[in-house]
Amino acid sequence: MDRKIIVHHMWRKSLMKLSPTMSGLTCSMVPAHPFVYGLGQKTDTGSYLSPTNAINHIAKKLAGAAETEIVVMMICAKTQAEFMSLLQQFSTVFPLPVFSQVERMAKTAELLQVTKMQLPAPQFGGLPKPQTLSTSTSRDTINAQLIEQAKNSAGSASGIDAMKSAMSGFKSARENALKGISDKLAGLLGKSVVIWSFTGKGTGDYLAEHLKKDIPDPDAVFTLATLFAGSELSSLQGMLHDPTKPINRTEPDNHLRP
């Protein structure tokens, strides 16, 4: 039986954990973070964004929208270190490219601040460290050489033995790849992070109004909030659990009931 989104129209603490039944879905996504152009406050000491400004940004995107379902996930912190920790956990549990990108941006911003506080070392002569040069043309050339070598040796006994050895290698590589995927999935399913969440259904104006009520952690200065909006978001809602209770995969989460 399909799970329907459970509407509560208020902010709640949730334990976010990837669901083993998570499948592809189509929805609109609006991220709000300190590095969105024109949104975050950029100063000499870094880029900042409060939960209030992040949610107001998302609420504006909902204005005038027809009836829809939404899930909003938010992490916020008062310090850079706490925000970096939450970002890392969040992007690991739910590794969408946008979250990994925000994590990289935050790390880059942090490194820039450290660099500004350090005196530049005097620069002298000397060659840079060696590095491997690889281009698409050089790789194509190497591959062409390998193919030509394979053609020349294909008819010989040693060539046949080599092909058998290669097939055995392919089989082993395939088994290792499948095991790696299985181990990675098991690792993802075992990770979790506590976030703020909001789920609801209604017109855009109605949802925007409720989103802006009792916004959590108004004193925080680092925020990542993401709006998901679509016709069927039960798989996303299924990632959110009551952090004070054991997770029951077969029943909807009680803390999301109205």
- Which spans of ≥5 residues are poorly predicted at pLDDT below 50? 1-5, 121-127, 254-258
* Strand portion: 15-25%
For the sheet with most strands, the description reads: 6 strands, antiparallel
Number of contiguous helices: 7
Measured distance between first and last alpha carbons: 21 Å
Radius of gyration over C-alpha positions, nearest whole angstrom: 25 Å
Q: Give me the strand/helix succession.
A: EEEEHEHHHHEHEHE
Q: Count the E strands.
A: 8
Q: If you average the pLDDT, what whole number results?
A: 77
Give the overall form.
elongated
The level of helicity is: 40-55%
Computed structural class: alpha+beta
Nutshell version of this structure?
With 258 residues, this protein is α+β, with helices and mostly antiparallel strands. The protein has helices at residues 51-62, 80-93, 97-116, 136-153, 157-189, 204-211, 234-237, and strands spanning 12-17, 28-32, 41-43, 46-48, 68-77, 192-202, 222-230, 240-241.
Account of the protein in words:
The protein contains seven helices and eight strands. Helices cover 42% and strands 19% of the residues. Helix 1 packs antiparallel against helix 6 and helix 2 (80-93) runs antiparallel to helix 3. The radius of gyration is 25 Å and the shape is elongated. A six-stranded antiparallel sheet has the order 2-7-5-6-1-8, sandwiched between helices. Strands 3-4 form a two-stranded antiparallel ribbon. With 258 residues, the protein is of the alpha+beta class.
